[in-house]
Amino acid sequence: EAAAAGLEEAKARGFFEQQLKEYQERRDVLLAAFDKLGLKYFLPEGSYFVLVDISRLKFPDDYPFPETVRGRGRDFKACWFMALEVGVSAIPVSEFYCEEHCNIGENYARFGFCKDVDTLKEAGHRLQSLSKYLS
């Protein structure tokens, strides 16, 4: 009964419409950063994550990855590199695949836009420093 009352209140107060508007704004802030870099992505249709094609990202061959990262997929290394060098975290897509198929996701990173607009603007600004690592 409490859940039903909560849904009725949410509807009466326009909660879902407001949430949709806010997440579209947040999504657009992050996507603008990828557009500026020329990185392709899949437009999300039902979540607050966007899959970005990171195949053009070239980190140095001699980058000092820790032992726990060296045996992982390319996307895992790219996400580690971005977190340390740019200060923006992403989720390696290969983590969602079984071991025998993890290579399917190695050219993608998953970025969340479930943050406040100022944080996303800062992330977009930081992401621009990736331009020197793009082929």
TrEMBL record:
**Official protein name in the record:** Aminotransferase class I/classII large domain-containing protein
**Mind telling me which SUPFAM superfamilies this protein's record contains?**
PLP-dependent transferases
Molecular function terms in GO for this entry? kynurenine-oxoglutarate transaminase activity; pyridoxal phosphate binding
Kindly state which keywords UniProt assigns to this record, in alphabetical order.
Aminotransferase, Pyridoxal phosphate, Transferase
Q: Which organism is it from?
A: Pisolithus microcarpus 441
Q: Which cofactor does it need?
A: pyridoxal 5'-phosphate
At the top level, the lineage of the source is Eukaryota
Q: Which Gene3D superfamilies match?
A: Aspartate Aminotransferase, domain 1
Q: Which Pfam families match?
A: Aminotran_1_2
* GO CC terms of this entry: mitochondrion
- Could you tell me which residue ranges the Aminotransferase class I/classII large domain spans? 2-123
Family matches, as InterPro entries: Aminotransferase_I/II_large (IPR004839), Kynurenine-oxoglutarate_AT (IPR051326), PyrdxlP-dep_Trfase (IPR015424), PyrdxlP-dep_Trfase_small (IPR015422)
